[in-house]
Write a structure and sequence with these properties.
The chain is mostly helical and about 300 residues long. The chain has 13 helices and four strands. The radius of gyration is 29 Å and the shape is flat.
């Protein structure tokens, strides 16, 4: 009985090996052929949605890109995957360093490992806190401009017009009045953008290792103001009609300065550059196990 079962197992086809062979595309010396089809498809999807708020012809161009990208992507995968053979001279010998536990000379120990910047980053809550503090500073500048125009509700309603289409045809007198819907919508939009930019600022400031304050207080507000200036006509035409751009720029700088100060002075934590996955997730390894099944001292 045992011999018969062993013989049948040997004669049975090894489906697992055959599947791996197909997925490898013919062998270890080949790689999938490069193609621009995925990025063309992604670009087409972006244009298709952008045309909903700009011009229908933008969606038409996006649709053509989607078709071209989908067909191109399909043809490099089916019916036979397109592959590229790796030439022999493309292989490089990589020095992976000494074996675990081997001693190093002092000069080599000082040179390893090389630090990858940034070495320390702020916590996620620092970006959230910086975004909230910056939101207060930006709101103070915007409300000051509204008070000079005769109503503190004007900047709030202008911001709410990004979502509330009924404000597009409203008069300046209506925009200067209090509206509960405008207040709730304006606060929601303001907090959402402030938190998003605060998190981005917290992630990007450590990358500017030499001049983080200059990056936060000058580069970020200039870039954001230029993006807002270019897209204001699409995102909020009502705000574009009534905005004072000098006050708008001032509010962006107020946000960036306050958020940068809060994030820059927050607690920093070291990045896990050269830790193993087990060490990153703080998993305990039982060194007393010898049978590979997790046994050992309890």
């Amino acid at each position: 009985m045992t011999d018969s079962g062993t013989q049948d197992a040997r004669n049975a086809p090894d489906e697992r090996v055959e599947t791996v062979h197909v997925m490898q595309g013919g062998g270890p010396d080949v790689i999938p052929a490069p193609t621009a089809a995925p990025i063309i498809l992604a670009f087409g999807i972006t244009l298709a949605f952008a045309g909903l708020v700009t011009n229908p012809w933008v969606s038409v161009v996006g649709g053509l890109c989607i078709i071209a990208g989908a067909i191109g992507w399909w043809r490099v995968v089916l019916p036979v995957e397109s592959i590229e053979v790796i030439p022999e001279d493309a292989y490089l010998l990589i020095d992976t360093g000494p074996e675990e536990g081997a001693s190093l000379p002092p000069e080599a120990a000082q040179a390893m490992p090389r630090k990858v910047l940034p070495v320390e980053v702020p916590r996620i809550r620092s970006g959230i806190l910086g975004g909230l503090c910056g939101a207060v500073a930006m709101a103070a500048v915007a409300l000051a401009w509204g008070a000079m125009q005769g109503s503190i509700w004007l900047p709030i309603n202008l911001l709410a017009a990004m979502v509330l289409s009924s404000y597009d045809s409203a008069s300046i007198e209506s925009l200067s009045a209090f509206h509960a819907s405008g207040l709730a919508t304006g606060i929601g939009i303001h907090l959402a953008f402030s938190l998003m930019i605060g998190l981005l600022l917290g992630a990007m400031m450590p990358m500017a290792s030499r001049w983080p304050w200059l990056f936060s207080c000058l580069v970020v507000p200039i870039i954001w103001s230029l993006l807002a200036y270019a897209g204001m006509g699409v995102l909020d035409p009502t705000l574009e009609q009534h905005v004072d751009w000098w006050w708008f720029f001032a509010s962006q700088f107020a946000y960036a300065i306050v958020a940068g100060i809060v994030i820059g002075r927050s607690e920093k934590i070291s990045v896990v550059q050269f830790l193993s996955p087990a060490e990153r997730f703080e998993l305990e390894v039982n060194k007393g196990s010898t049978d590979g099944r997790g046994g050992g001292d309890a």
